[in-house]
Write the structure tokens for this entry.
Amino acid sequence: MANNRCIGTVDEVTSSLFTTPSDRPHYYTGIVTHGVYTQRAFSVVHAGHGSIRVGAARPSDERGSLTPSLARAASSKYLLQCLCKAPGLSTSEVSEEAILRIQLQKLAINAVINPLTAIFDCLNGQLFNNPRRLALSRLLLSEISSVISSVFASSMREKSDGEALSIFSVPTLEQIVLEAAHQTAANISSMRQDMLNGRRTEIDYIN
């Protein structure tokens, strides 16, 4: 699953289609940082080069368990090999813990940049030119930091130490968000695109 909904899709699919654990497929999550925007149906512009990181994922009711990651099916290995070899995608495979960390960091980025660019109707790079917007983002990050630190700690099979959780501190998250805004300065965030085109946004998944 490679999409803009950082967290929630695996749980949604599991609760709808695979309620019995023994019947569940092997989930993989892909986090995409390439900048793209849609011009029209089936027409997408690649606006900024990024990367794709792929890792095994679990439904929330399996996180924190002592059960090791399931052995990958041959089809999964082949898919991962193809993605990693594809030119231009810059794809790499990461561990289950690493993909969750990346998901949560991406969630922090989306929870700040997407709604604020939609509200203030601006490009990503224009968002933090205003000191009041920067102050507002810090208020958001304060709450985000507390929430995702708890999610990460409760999802790990081994207890996370202070150093591991420091990656979700407000200063660290602020730096990540500012870097993302700079790297995608000319981009229209997905939520702003949805708002401009009258489409439903991903706000429920961010919340």
Remarks:
- The helical segments are 9-17, 74-85, 96-120, 131-155, 162-165, 170-183, 190-196, 203-206.
- The longest helix spans residues 96-120.
- Residues 55 and 99 are 5 Å apart (CA to CA).
